[in-house]
């Protein structure tokens, strides 16, 4: 079954480049292109893509606002943000808005295609190390809700699932979580699946954001560059 992809970027040459890479794959089809957030929102509803490649900085409506609108609809597509990481100070907010992950704009084509396939099946393309860096760098700049608050769904988690949630937010892999808790990787995967379902979350990115919102995790201070 072919994955339908919508490419959103305000630079025509960038859109053309991404579209060419994606259309060359047998299991992917570019169903549309948009040059701004307004068009992205409209085409997302009209074309019902499986995955949207979303730029951040665009005229009329930026990628963050567009992502928030799109993911707020019923049965939304997955949104994969492509950004110049060192320049875009809005990546964290894009994830809070509902994006399933991010990649750099200079990503190797194979990594872009892998990222599209991963978010299409509900995975995150945020590597654990990138999660730690992202949270540490941006959390202090974002309007995080009052730490320590709770939600009813949180009470439905078992003690093990709650512990796994905090470790996911810390950027640990399933293998690292299993080693720290002394349980099998398969058990960790089961806990992650269960906590996502109970909390009504799509992926590990949303779980990480929620953990920070609830005060279950604390941003690590950025490391100094040596």
Keywords:
disordered C terminus; five-stranded parallel sheet; globular; 10 helices; 5 strands
Assembly form of the protein: single chain
Q: Tell me, rounded to a whole number, the average pLDDT.
A: 83
3D shape = globular
Beta content: 5-15%
What report would you give on this structure?
This protein has helices at 12-23, 37-47, 63-71, 91-96, 109-120, 128-138, 159-169, 174-181, 185-199, 204-213; strands spanning 3-8, 28-34, 51-54, 78-83, 101-104. By secondary structure, it is an alpha/beta fold. The chain has a 5-stranded parallel sheet, sandwiched between helices. Helix 7 (159-169) packs across helix 10 and helix 8 (174-181) crosses helix 9 (185-199). The chain is globular, with a radius of gyration of 18 Å. It starts with a strand and ends in a 13-residue tail after the last helix. Residues 141-148 and 221-226 have low confidence and may be disordered.
Topology readout:
Blueprint lengths: L2 E6 L3 H12 L4 E7 L2 H11 L3 E4 L8 H9 L6 E6 L7 H6 L4 E4 L4 H12 L7 H11 L20 H11 L4 H8 L3 H15 L4 H10 L13
Helix pairs in contact: 2-3, 7-9, 7-10, 8-9
Quick synopsis:
The protein is an alpha/beta fold. Helices cover 46% and strands 12% of the residues. It has a 5-stranded parallel beta sheet, with helices on both faces.
